[in-house]
């Protein structure tokens, strides 16, 4: 499609202004007609320079995998294979969930010439996205016309949850500065409870580890050696229903924070030799990763959740726990990430978590609603907003009763804001390991 340019509009305005002189001097008519004819002739000649304007080879280079919120670079290469130089305004087909900087380019490319254009993209949502084409407006030689063209250039990019935190955790762990991200060291209570072997007593061994029966039998001081609890299982149950939607700031939903915290804790657990699995659900099972270890486990978890988003449906907790019992029979730390807003969901969650106490160790992670807490904290002493604050405070009191009921049933609980989830979750895991609860 071809559009008139600014230069043509400017050129047409010249005889239009002179035509006002016809009110005073009719003899100007021939000159104005000549000017109109010249402009039309020049415009038609300039229009012919757009022939072959689409003769470009276009390529796009970028990373095929990126992290949520992490900028990545896109490089465009334009090769003008035509016989004339071109001036064009270019815009890449960036998905609406990403922000490009800069969004447009002005480029002048000589004939047989190359142009390299780079820009930064910040993904704002997880998932798989496609850059389908490049759009451009190519100007004619004099700028009287612009031709809209596009070139097909498909590139598929996968946006994964934020995995930069894993590299940061590893770096801080090596420097012994995990407190910078809120992770506390948990003192191990006693020793690990898995018996490994009997061995001779050596100076420095704890006297309480002495095995007196073996000592009497062997007539030599003998101690019981224990080994670290490893290959224990962690199973994440993550609610992807309506409770996990919304915006907590920066375009991130509570579900995004849940996935980020899950990946971070999975990394910590895998470093300690534990196995990690995942079950994501809404009104159906969305993803399942059986518990396992190894260096590739994080990649599998990341790939399984990168395109899962909250759905405006009621979560079916019963289906999730039935699936858990079918696929995970060995004792595990079951971490349920969800929230409660009504008695029906609270009753279901309480029943299901209470039923697995003994077979598993349940940990309910409940993500707070920031607006609800702010409404209760900032309620005025008088006025209509006082009643809103009272309702919010009543809901928070009910919420605390629900969590207290879960603790009475033997389940562990964690009540945090989504933005602050990662560090408390890791601390809870380290405390469980230190107390040998699993």
How does this structure look, described?
This protein is an alpha/beta fold and 438 residues long. It has three domains: 1-160, Immunoglobulins (Immunoglobulin-like, Sandwich); 164-186 and 230-434, von Willebrand factor, type A domain (Rossmann fold); 197-227, no CATH class. It has helices at residues 6-18, 29-48, 164-175, 212-218, 254-271, 297-305, 317-327, 343-355, 370-377, 385-408, 422-434; strands spanning 2-4, 56-62, 65-67, 72-80, 86-92, 98-101, 105-109, 114-123, 127-139, 145-160, 194-200, 222-227, 233-239, 275-281, 285-292, 332-338, 361-367, 412-416. Strands 1, 3, 5, 7, 9 and 10 form a six-stranded mixed beta sheet that branches. The protein has a six-stranded mixed beta sheet with strand order 15-14-13-16-17-18, sandwiched between helices. The protein has a four-stranded antiparallel beta sheet with strand order 2-4-8-6, with no helix packed on it. β13 (233-239), α5 and β14 (275-281) form a beta-alpha-beta unit. The longest helix is centred in the C-terminal third of the chain and has 24 residues, at 385-408. The model has no long low-confidence stretch (mean pLDDT 85).
């Amino acid at each position: 499609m071809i559009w008139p340019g600014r230069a043509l509009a400017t050129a047409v305005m010249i005889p239009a202004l002179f035509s006002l002189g016809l009110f005073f001097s009719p003899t100007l008519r021939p000159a104005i007609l000549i000017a109109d004819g010249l402009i039309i002739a020049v415009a038609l000649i300039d229009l012919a320079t757009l022939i072959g304007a689409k003769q470009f080879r276009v390529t796009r280079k970028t990373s095929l995998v990126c992290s949520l919120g992490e900028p990545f670079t896109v490089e465009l290469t334009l090769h003008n294979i035509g016989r004339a130089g071109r001036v064009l305004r270019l815009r890449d087909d960036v998905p609406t969930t990403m922000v490009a900087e800069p969004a447009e380019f002005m480029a002048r490319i000589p004939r047989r010439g190359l142009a390299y254009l780079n820009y930064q993209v910040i993904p704002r949502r997880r998932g798989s996205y496609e850059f389908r084409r490049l759009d451009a407006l190519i100007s004619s030689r004099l700028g009287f016309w612009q031709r809209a063209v596009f070139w097909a250039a498909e590139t598929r990019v996968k946006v994964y949850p934020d995995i930069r935190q894993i590299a940061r955790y590893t770096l801080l762990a090596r420097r012994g500065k995990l407190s910078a991200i809120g992770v506390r060291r948990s003192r191990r209570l006693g020793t690990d409870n898995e018996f490994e072997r009997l061995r001779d007593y050596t100076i420095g061994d704890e006297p309480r580890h002495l095995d007196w029966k073996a000592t009497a039998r062997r007539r030599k001081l003998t101690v019981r050696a224990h080994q670290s609890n490893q290959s224990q299982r962690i199973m994440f149950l993550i609610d992807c229903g309506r409770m996990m939607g919304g915006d907590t700031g920066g375009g991130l939903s509570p579900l995004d924070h849940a996935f980020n915290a899950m990946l971070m804790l999975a990394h910590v657990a895998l470093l300690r030799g534990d196995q990690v699995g995942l079950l994501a659900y809404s009104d159906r099972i969305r993803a399942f990763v059986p518990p396992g270890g190894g260096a590739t486990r994080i990649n599998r978890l990341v790939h399984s959740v990168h395109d899962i988003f909250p759905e405006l449906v009621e979560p079916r907790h019963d289906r999730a726990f039935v699936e858990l019992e079918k696929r995970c029979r060995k004792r595990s730390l079951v971490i349920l990430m969800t929230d409660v807003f009504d008695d029906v969901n609270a009753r279901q969650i309480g029943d299901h978590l209470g039923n697995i106490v003994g077979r598993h160790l349940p940990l309910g992670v409940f993500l707070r609603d920031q607006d609800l807490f702010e409404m209760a904290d900032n309620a005025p002493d008088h006025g209509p907003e006082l009643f809103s604050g009272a309702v919010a405070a009543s809901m928070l009191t009910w919420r605390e009763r629900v969590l207290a009921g879960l603790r009475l049933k033997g389940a562990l609980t964690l009540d945090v804001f989504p933005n602050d989830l990662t560090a408390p979750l890791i601390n809870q895991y380290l405390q469980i390991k230190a107390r040998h609860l699993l």
